[in-house]
Amino acid sequence: MAVFKAALVNEIEKLSKKKKAWVAVILSLAVIVAGQLVILAVRSGFGLRGVGSGEFPLLVLSLVVNTILPLFAALVAIDSFSGESAQNTLRITLTRPVSRLKIFSAKIGAITLFLLAALFLLLIFSLLAGLLFNANSLTWPDFFRIVLSFLVSLLPLVILALGIVLLTNLVRSGITVFFLAILAFLLLKVLGLVFSTYADLLPTASLDWYNLWLAGVFPWTTIVRQFLLMLGYGVMFFVAGFYLFDQKEL
Amino acid sequence: MKFKKQTALLLSFTVGALLVATTALADMTHKSGYDQLKDALKNTAAQCSSKFDNFTMDISYVVKDNGKTVSSSDTVRKMDRKADATLEETELVTQDGGRQTSEHYADPQTMIDHSSQNSTYFVTHFDPARKFEVLSDPFQSKGAGDVERIVDAVVGNLKDYVVVKESPNGSKEFSGSLNQTQIPSLINALVSFQAKRGLVHSLPQLTQDIFIKEIKGNAQVNRNGVMQSLLGTLVMSGKDAQGQVHLISLEVLGKLSGINATQVVKPDLGGKKVQENTVSSATYKQQIVNPKMYVGEFKNDIVIQKDGKFVKAGERILDITQADQQTVTGQYKEEYKPGFESYATHKVNFHFKAKLSPQGPPGGKFSAVSANGDRISGQLYFDPNLGKVNLVLNGMASMGPGYDSTFEPVFH
């Protein structure tokens, strides 16, 4: 465990030193500022309230969970695998007396923490913006619902990241992986539209599963099903990704 | 050791795959409340448009402003597919308590309209009978599948907000509600915007802070899967120009009853003031014209702008020499007045033979070669009400500006 912890700390430190982490922070802020500006424009232009302070964070979440958050997941996953092997720095990590499973898990752990941090940042700033600029309608139950929505959104994002990690271990070039990931993401979204009856089964469909957690009558059977589905995809992606990572020749 | 690791990996992968597969199977056999509701709607529409001989649909709505009824309406529509007739009675109550009733009866041969504001019954006879469908299944119409897909995509993970309660006798009750945090912001904004534009006039004009507070729905489906009632409520909040908050609610209730026990009775016109009108060709059907009536000369003026005025430079002449139900033959030519010959740069003269098409407005297409060798194609239509002929030429721009396609008959 101590070894894993050390590996994780190492991965997190590497990640935080990257410019990409800062790009993520700035992009998140930009989304919130832009969203708030649009709301203000709609409010003064059409007389619509747009959102109250209780809904603004959820509006932000609904926007980012299908756009920039998957993008962050892709960037970080690619950087952590393809990037390092391209720069030959992966060799350094792998020659340490740490098993490859631990390194692989530490990398996944770091990506998870990064996504959690991004969600946390978005949550804090959208709550602040919501309270500052929108009619004060935030109640405690609303607050807990919002926090819950952001928290549960971590799981589908991690599954998505695992899928991309699998891709990085299949294809060598980081740029190819990036475009493949975007293509696959769009393709899955389109498939979800065309075969709307089976859309729930696609790994991208659960990105906005936080909606389920907000329902008045708690749809626990659906939540359990979605959870198991994601878990299944996660295990498959993890195992396949790790297998390829383990086979990699330096 | 190596072998063990591989086995463990393979095992975990299989477990993951099995997990996905079983959940997927469970997911496919499980129908969300939303899907069940959709099925009930489709089934009801299909039964109404093809199986039930007759039934009664009752659709009513109430608009309230801060709890006070602003307007309400109730429409009872009796439909008889066997007798091919519908009778619709509407009652509208306005804010000041005023009541308006209206009645609309329709079958293939007749249409009767009457309202409480006018004692006259307006009767329209269709001779020959028009094509008339009591109720067509909206889910079978063109593009319905695409609309369904779009709706499904928008609904997305809100599908599970529809709760189903099944009773032992097989009937089902659907209910669902969305509050302001649950309604996706984009939908909230769009609905608010639409609602703002489409508000009933007697309502206070909301100017700011408009949003949808709540959407609720409830439906009863009997054990044969036919929806018997559907109630929808939408609550909107907003402020008027004085800053006063208004909660406006709209309740819509639809009921289906009297299946195979409804009688559509034609209004009794005995002793009533009646204004009759006969339509020889219903708009629903190809208008019947007698092309022979159009043999003769038709004209319109070539008008140009000269010295800041409109001036007649000549005439376009359409001479129809032969016309029957299949073909129309004739000649088109342009004649310029003396002194305007310089404008005749596009002077066209051609003989044509148009084939009348059995569908669409009465008329047909033709192609011809003009006197100076240009290929010309276009369409010719008869206007049955005004006795005019429309001659539309493809690429009319090349005919020079101001080509007029309407030709009036020349009476000698």
Automatic annotation (TrEMBL), chain A:
Q: Does the keyword Membrane apply?
A: yes
* Transmembrane helix recorded as keyword: yes
- In its UniProt entry, what is this protein called? ABC-2 family transporter protein
Pfam families referenced in this protein's UniProt entry, alphabetically: ABC2_membrane_4
Query: Could you say which residues form the signal peptide?
Result: none
Which UniProt keyword terms apply here? Answer: Membrane, Transmembrane, Transmembrane helix
Where, by residue number, does the polypeptide cross the bilayer? Answer: 21-46, 58-78, 108-131, 143-168, 175-198, 218-245
Q: What domain of life does the UniProt record list for this protein's source?
A: Bacteria
TrEMBL record, chain B:
Q: Where is the secretion signal located? A: 1-26
Question: What highest taxon heads this organism's lineage?
Answer: Bacteria
Could you tell me the keywords of this UniProt record? Signal
The name on file for this protein is Conserved protein
- Source species, please? Acididesulfobacillus acetoxydans
